[in-house]
Design a protein that fits this description.
- Helix 6 links the parallel strand 14 and strand 15.
- The protein has nine helices and 23 strands.
- The protein starts with 8 loop residues before the first strand and ends with a strand.
- By secondary structure, the protein is α/β, with parallel strands linked by helices.
- The N terminus is likely disordered.
- The protein is elongated and about 85 Å long.
- 22% of the residues lie in helices and 22% in strands.
């Protein structure tokens, strides 16, 4: 096996009494260095990959256990770097050019009666509490871990080795997204455990490695609980969630003027500036997915909007699309116009949850665990975009 060698020499010149060597296989390097210092012996450390010895554990020592050692004895140890990286990539099917699901939710209701599966309404925009819980369990067990939408559009995928990123979004700012039932004795909001945030916060505790987060896209009425506006928005920001723009009046941008389009976008940004200045994301979830083409006359006015002598810039928009989108490192990725999966049930057809996840079972993004590298199979290199700033590794 190919070795990577790093030699560290520690020389101690004071005297020591004769002792017997310990078994170092379960000792940390820090403990071994301390052991060498105490007993005035020379230490050399080498590193190599090893498929069977865990990373940072001792593979071998040149002085066997119970051998007598004395001052200036030469102790040489080899520490494992873990498995060869290429082998790890192969074992985990790492593919950072794969597809990423961006889930589109609206309402989460504590109801039982449904149309199909967990859909409360015919279109599947309102979902039951139990269905939402099942969704979250499904994503986790399928190896998905949440990332922030803002990180996704800015090429930052922080997911552990072998796991896949998923993005959660909620439109419309419904009360059942974060329902406040009152204030505690310290003036903090009390959140209904049956609302979306109540459920997400429970999953934070259940699965600490899930990296629970979501982005909520709001209209002018925010979460429809006016007296709690400031507390709700700041609670979400303080607890790892993001707030975005869904137009002030939930308009169809195909049916209004360019001036009105700018006003609809800018008024929400202005409102968020009031409550959470510089803490919201400059991303717009397009109501009705409108306009559904970037060449529409109003699209540029969504990207750059003017209101009350201030200009607002939008970095990305979300469609009401029906499938997963691309890796941000892919030449097919368009951060300005991102597709989403409608989180609903339709018996495994028409791009419902089951259909959408089955479709990317073998093409999903699988992480190498390092935010500073892009790791892909060699045959996928042709799909990389040209302006990636991260180091590219193929295997």
């Amino acid at each position: 096996m190919k070795k990577i060698i790093l030699i560290i020499s520690i020389l101690f010149i004071t005297g020591c009494t004769q002792i017997k060597m310990l078994d170092l296989s379960n000792k940390s390097l820090k403990d071994i260095e301390k052991y060498a210092e105490i007993h005035k012996i020379k230490l050399e450390v080498a590193y190599q990959y090893n498929d069977s010895i865990l990373k940072d554990k001792v593979i071998s020592q040149n002085i066997s256990k119970n051998t007598k050692i004395k001052k200036n004895s030469n102790l040489k140890i080899v520490i494992s770097l873990g498995k060869n990286l290429e082998q790890l990539y192969k074992e985990n099917n790492v593919n950072e050019i794969g597809r990423i699901p961006v889930m589109m939710y609206h309402g989460i209701e504590d109801k039982i009666n449904t149309f199909i599966g967990g859909n409360i309404d015919k279109e599947g925009y309102q979902r039951t509490k139990s269905a939402f819980i099942n969704d979250l369990e499904f994503y986790y067990k399928e190896g998905y871990r949440m990332i922030r939408l803002n990180d996704y559009v800015n090429d930052k995928i922080d997911v552990s080795l072998g796991k896949s990123p998923i993005v959660l979004t909620f439109d419309d700012g419904l009360v059942n997204n974060i329902k406040v039932t009152g204030l505690d004795t310290n003036g903090n909001i009390i959140i209904d455990p049956n609302c979306a945030i109540g459920i997400l916060e429970q999953f934070k505790k259940k699965y600490p490695d899930y990296n629970v987060t979501a982005t909520f896209f709001l209209n002018g009425w925010l979460f429809r609980q006016e007296k709690y506006n400031e507390k709700i928005l700041n609670y979400l920001i303080d607890n790892g969630y993001d707030i975005g723009n869904h137009s002030y009046n939930h308009v169809n941008f195909k049916n209004i003027s360019s001036i009105k389009s700018e006003e609809e976008i800018a008024r929400v940004y202005e409102l968020l500036e009031k409550y959470i200045p510089n803490k919201y994301v400059n991303i717009v979830a397009l109501p009705f997915g409108s306009p559904n083409k970037k060449n529409h006359d109003n699209f540029s006015h969504i990207i750059m909007a003017n209101y009350n002598n201030k200009t607002y810039h939008t970095i990305s928009t979300l469609q009401v699309g029906w499938e997963s989108d691309y890796s941000p490192f892919s030449s097919n990725f368009d951060k300005i116009f991102i597709k989403r999966i409608r989180a609903y049930d339709n018996n495994g057809t028409n791009f419902d949850i089951k259909y959408s996840f089955d479709k990317i079972k073998y093409t999903k993004y699988i992480s190498d665990g390092d935010v500073n590298t892009i790791v892909i199979p060699k045959e996928n290199k042709i799909y990389l975009k040209d302006n990636n700033t991260l180091k590219v590794v193929t295997y």
